[in-house]
Amino acid sequence: MTQPDGGSTESIQDLATRAIGGDRRATEDLIGAVHRLVHRYCRARLSRFPGVDYAADDVAQEVCIAVLSALPRYRDEGKPFEAFVYRVAANKVADVQRSVYRTAQPQAEIPDVIDLSDGPETLAIRASDAREARTLLDRLPETLRELVVLRVAVGMSAEETGRALGMSAGAVRVAQHRAVQRLRLLATNPATERA
Where does residue 78 fall: left (phi above 0), alpha (psi -120 to 50 degrees), or beta otherwise? Predict the structure, then answer.
């Protein structure tokens, strides 16, 4: 069965099982579903970098290629296939982030027209807030950090996040609540030890 956007209503796990078995149509549907899943994730994780739209497209494509290449060797170990996909995506995003940090960033010329966008003060405050949020997130354990990114930045449902992290939707909600409480505590008391 096909959805209006061209995607299959079949679960990614089922598509992966059929694709591993050599079903070409399932492989095509699987890669389409993987691309839709990881594109939002990549945009959220790369949002602070210049050219995020192009970078997210490129990384999503790289993830699809990596998943396609790994299919013949993939072994179902009882975890959702989405968890495998998000792990590949997290690694590809980390590669891009490292690359951007190592690359010199060009600076714009002095403009000939008046710039009506936010001024340096507003940008500095926004950057400071973003830096503080990243610092707080870095103090959470990796699983909780990924959960918060998927739920808040990517906007995934508890069910989608649960499939990606190998958790139930209820466990995602409980973990999210604990993560938010921990972030509040860290924000109000920076001396609090690492979670």
Answer: left
Q: What share of the chain is helix, strand, coil (3-state, %, to 5)?
A: 70, 0, 30
Q: What is the pLDDT of residues 112-147, one digit of tens each?
A: 676 677 777 777 777 777 788 888 888 888 889 889
Is the pTM for the entire model greater than 0.85?
Answer: no
Q: Is 133 exposed, middle or buried (0-12, 13-18, 19+ CB in 10 A)?
A: middle
Give the position of tokens 């945009």: 43
Q: State the CB neighbour count (10 A cutoff) for residue 109.
A: 6
Q: Which pLDDT does position 2 carry in this prediction?
A: 39
Q: At what angle do helices 52-70 and 81-102 cross, to 10 degrees?
A: 130
pLDDT tens-digit profile of 21-67?
Answer: 889 999 999 999 999 989 888 888 887 776 666 788 888 999 999 99
Other C-beta atoms closer than 10 Å to the C-beta of 42 total 26
- Annotate 53-105 with DSSP letters as a single string: HHHHHHHHHHHHHHHHHHGGG----SS-HHHHHHHHHHHHHHHHHHHHHHSPP
Q: Classify 189 as helix, strand or coil.
A: coil
What are the C-alpha distances in Å from 12 to residues 17, 75, 83, 147? 9, 15, 11, 20
User: Tokens 């990596």, residue?
Assistant: 66
Residue among 143, 176, 150 nearest 42 (CA):
150
